[in-house]
Structure formats: structure tokens, C-alpha cells
Amino acid sequence: MRRSLLYRSMVAGVLVCCGMGCLEVHAQPEPGQYRVYPLPIASPDHGTRALLTGPADFDASPFGWHDTNGASGAEFTILRGNNAWVYVDADANNTPDGPGPDGGSTLQFDYLASPYTLPPTSQEAALATNAFYLVNSFHDILWQHGFQEVDGNFQENNYGRGGTGGDPVQVEILDGATTNNANGSTAPTDGSQARIQLGIWTAANPDRGASYAADVVAFAYMQAVQTRLLGSGCGGNVDSPRIGNLDFFAALVSNDFTATTPATPHGLGTFLLNQPVTGTGARTYPYSVDLAINPSTYLDSSSSSVYGMGLIYASALWDLAWSLVGQIGASDDLLTGNGGENVSLRLLVLALKIQPCNAGLLDGRDAFLEADNNLYQGQYTCNIWNAFARRGMGLSAEQGSTSSTADNVAAFDVPASCSDTIFADGFDVLP
Ligand SMILES: [Ca+2]
Ligand SMILES: [Ca+2]
Ligand SMILES: [Ca+2]
Ligand SMILES: [Ca+2]
Q1: Which numbered ligand comes closest to the C-alpha of 224?
Q2: Could you list which residues have their CB under 5 Å from ion ligand 1?
Q3: Are 102 and 124 in contact (CB under 8 A)?
Q4: What domains sit in the chain, N to C, each tagged with a CATH number?
Q5: Which tens digit of pLDDT belongs to each residue from 297-306?
Q6: Full DSSP string of 294-324
Q7: What pLDDT digit, counting tens, does each position of 323-360 carry?
């Protein structure tokens, strides 16, 4: 996310042709300024706010974040545009309590934030601004990694790129129906409205608003994305990777792979849960490649809920991401980089498209292998096998019925062609 404005201004354009030939013309949306916790900062506990100028990605959002008509110039000077509409819904009726902050003609969104001393209701503008930045960033990041208009993404106007528009995300902050939680919903049909509800969390005093927690907002956004990609009637089974897909996206976009190590504990939602950044987070264990910190494996299946199955699945994906970062490096650019975190995210998005309805965890593993074949000619096959085998989802594992976790059989073996250790820094493939 740390590209210069100059670079961004060069990456997207529209060809305009006349008798003299063609010229690449760039949309010139108002850049806007937003004071936010920049990704991959997970929360106020993980870093400080910065005033970002023009953070929109002009490939994914060619007319900026406040456009809806496909012509230069913002249609809205509030936190509303092609990808999202952010507002307070304290009365829980799924409509705006008010218009929210207005950035004026130059789109200036710079407001007081004091997450440790003021209640969320005293910093609504800053919370709304942060949520708008995060949700639009997730739109742009996912667009760059395979969730675009033709895939059913969430936009008011698809700018002639296929798919069905009319489905920007309604982002409801301080949602009165969603205390100590956050969720995202939509219908599988492209063009159906998507909604994210971000509640107030009460573990700390004063309470904390979920909009400051990038990981929790990411989880909710991806919940809607996954519903769209899985299709109608899918994903109600308990022996399912679906929570794992959400956890992995949440962890991936809120982790600085250049400033942490594979062992660093990455708990989800620690800020909202009033835990230290090294805390366990919302699951039984924090994500970590270190099996002494996160020992989750497929052996835990029989005692696991859908959240526990998600922990097992995302633990394998976390190991995979770090093995890819170890092999090809981290890009530190969630939009257009080609580091291990980017490869992981492209595989995740394609695997969601590939996996069968009511998939089990081994179906998810196989979808990652197929995604790697499609995207990278299978060059990361052994990274995938080793990561899953390390968590008990190896070659000989069996998932049985995906409606039951009791019949799962763990195995830690890999194909003979993949016997190498994947972690160069001392973490063995096998527990
Ligand atoms: Ca416009
Ligand atoms: Ca609501
Ligand atoms: Ca759409
Ligand atoms: Ca099963």
C-alpha cells in the first residue's frame, strides 16, 4: 500500500482515439485526504494514524472512491461512492442515522480519534473515515487479486467491465444490532445488496468501535465476498473451511510481513478484545507458524465447531503464506505486489471460486492446488502440500462427510516429490 501518488497516477488510463492517433487519458478524481490507520496496521495498538492522499487504486477504482457515474468528479462528498457507503446505524434499522461527515469539494476527512479515552460515539467521524478507507482498500486489493466485476464484486457502477452493478457495500458502524461482533452478508446473486455491520465492543473501558480494527473489518468484508463466490445454498456445513478463509484474509491484510517473523503470534481482534498485540485473539490460539504457539491440526477435528475447523484451516494457510514469503519474499504492497502475501491471496480468491458447494477442508486444500496449477503452473504445489500436511491435512488424510467432523482422519504425509522442508528458519514440516 506504500506506492507513491506519482506511480499510481501512471498505472491506469483510458485510450482516447482521434484522427491523429490514440492517447492514454487518465481519470482525475479528487485525490481526497483521509486520516486513518494505514494497512497493514491492524489496530491502534499496532501503529499510528497517517493522513493519506489519494489512496484509491486507479485500476480497481478508476474514478476514485466517491464516484458513481463514471465521469471525473465526485458524486458524493460524504463517505459514499462506487464501492461503499459508510454510516452510523445505532438504531439498527439498516438505514443511515444521519449523513455522516462531509469532506467538502476537496474530500478532506481528518477527524479526532481517541480510541483509548473517548467512547466510540464521541469519534464517529474518525471511525467512519477509517471504515471507508478499509472497505474501499479491500475492494481494490481484491480487485487486483481476482475478485472483479465479472466475478460479482460489490460496485454501484461497473464502468462497462461486465458483471452486474448496483451492489456497493452498505457499511453500518456503531451498529446497534451487533454488539461485540461484526458481520458481512449478501445474496449469492451478483447485483444483490451487500451489508457489513460493525458493532461496538465492550471488553475495554471506554468501549471500542470495530472500524479501527482492520482485521475485524476484513473478516466482515470477506464474509460477504465468500457468500458471493460460493454460490447459492453453500456453506452451511460444520466441517468447513469457510471461517478459515475469512480468518486468513483478515490476518493477511493486517500483518506486516517485513516487520514480523513466522513465529510472531497474530491474534485476530486483540484490540477490540482489550488484549495485548501478542494476545490470543478471538480463536483458541493466535496464528503462528510456531507449533508451540499454535498447535492446531486436523487431529482436533472431532472436538471442533465450525470456528475450530476454521482455525485449523487458516493455520495451514498461514504456514503457506509464510513459506511463500520465505521463498519469494514479501512485497509490502497489498495492491500490485508479487510477494508471498500476494501469491497467497490470489490462490485464496481462486480457490473460493473452485471449491465445491459445502466443501470440507481437504476440498479447500485441493482447490488451492488447482488454483496454483491455473495461476502459477503448479510451481507452489509443494509449498501447499507441506503447509497442509504440517497441520494434518496431508496426502493420506480423509475428510469423510463434510457434515461431520467426527469422521476426519489426520495424516501428515506429502507426495514423494514434495519431501523438502518448507521453512528455512528452523520450523520443520512435520510436528
Ligand atoms: Ca463522477
Ligand atoms: Ca444494521
Ligand atoms: Ca456486483
Ligand atoms: Ca468430515
Answers
A1: 3
A2: 67, 69, 71, 73
A3: no
A4: 5-230 (3.10.170.10), 242-418 (1.10.390.10)
A5: 999 999 999 9
A6: ----GGGGGG--HHHHHHHHHHHHHHHHHHH
A7: 999 989 999 999 999 999 999 999 999 999 999 999 99
